[in-house]
Amino acid sequence: MGLRIIIFGPPGSGKGTRARLIGRLLKIPVITTGDMLRDEVSRGTEIGLKAKEYMDRGELVPDELVIGLVEERLRRPDCSGGFILDGFPRNLNQAEALDRILGEMGVKLDLVLNVVVDPEIVVERLSLRRWCPKCGAIYNLKYDPPKVDEICDECGARLIQRSDDREEVVRRRLRVYEEQTRPILQLYLERGLVREMRGDIPIEEIPREVEEVLGPYLKETGVKAPKSGI
To answer: Is 130 a residue of the active site?
Structure first.
């Protein structure tokens, strides 16, 4: 049986990169609520239209919308062998809902990863991030710029800045994170589930960090990691 993991970290901390690495390592799905919500927005669904108003202001989408999306996803067959939650829960109400959902499924949370990074690093990362609306490629104008200014290397489309990556919105998102999400860590700290990761290390060092953090836990719980993974 696989691991059930939550990964925490402010926007732009690199938690998504770590989640994908761990997902490949353990062969479990990564459930990213931000991606789920953006998909609803792009398809113009009722949930998407409601969520967009909040996302454009850098505010959290109402709990009832997010909890419903996550619950439906967790009950799919591919989550029976474990999963990684990225972006959920974001407040104590959502954490209580997750406890209820997992309890009804007859499973428990195994591990909470907390990616720690200086807020100013986050502001720089996100405010300089550009996204290709055609193929989904992501760039950073300082650290990973496209070969031609504002043009996607992959498909030639013009890059855009997502509305929630504007500096003023990023700072608001960070404040929201501190106010509403950080208190959940105390809950999981009291349960002995939290392990910290550094969000300021170079991307090439992330695989080693993931192995260091997960290695002892995998050995302790008896979960086998693939010999070739990250």
So the answer is: no
The active-site residue, picked from 57, 73, 162, 171, is 162
Alpha-carbon torsion angle 123, 40, 22, 2, nearest 10: 140
Q: What is the pLDDT of residues 51-86, one digit of tens each?
A: 888 888 877 789 998 998 899 899 999 999 899 999
Q: What does the block give as tokens for 61?
A: 């989408």
158 is known as an active-site residue: no
- Residue 162 designated active-site: yes
| pTM recorded for the entire structure | 0.80
Choose the catalytic residue: 18, 52, 90, 130.
Answer: 90
Where helices occur in the chain by DSSP H, the ranges are 15-26, 33-42, 46-56, 63-74, 92-105, 119-127, 167-176, 182-190, 206-221
Active site residue 173: yes
**Dihedral angle over CA of 31, 34, 37, 42, nearest 10:** -110
Asked if residue 147 lies in contact with residue 153, where contact means CB atoms within 8 angstroms, the answer is yes
Q: Chain centroid to CA 7: how far?
A: 7
| 108 catalytically annotated | no
